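In response to reviewer comment 3 from the previous cycle, which asked for concrete evidence that the modeling workflow produces usable outputs, we include below a single protein chain processed end to end. The sequence was submitted unchanged, and the resulting structure tokens are shown without manual editing.
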Amino acid sequence: MIVSAMGVAAGADDSTQEFVIQTVAERRVQANGGIEYAPADQLRVGDEIFYTLRVRNAGNSAVQNAVIVKAMPHNTRYVQNSATGPGAVVEFSVDGGKSFARPEQLTVRASENAIRNATEDDYTHIRWRLHHPLASGATALLRFRAVFK
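The workflow returned the following structure tokens.
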């Protein structure tokens, strides 16, 4: 399954830059005596989905410190430690993308009087902060895995 969209990310100077973001969702399948990747268009509960975001800088200049945000796909749970990107700091949100932090810093309200550490089931968004400039026309590959639930 491939989904393309235009995206906007913030640069170091808080200006916005135009990105073309293509999301590819695949699953591992047994084929031809080995493992291959196929579109994740037919899923069963428990299937692991491999997501790749191809983020292309469609602007006319390099973007310093680009920030890309992806909502967790519906009916999925993030696979711990699976988000990667080129020299990126990866952070998560548990409040619909309003704030982001490292996993060990995230908490959620368990009840009116109790707060607990967040788990992967609580994640609503993933954010990648790229440390290297993304040149005009260049593409960064960002990845994560999720389990279909």
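The mean pLDDT is 89. We consider this sufficient to address the reviewer's concern, and the full set will be provided in the supplementary archive.
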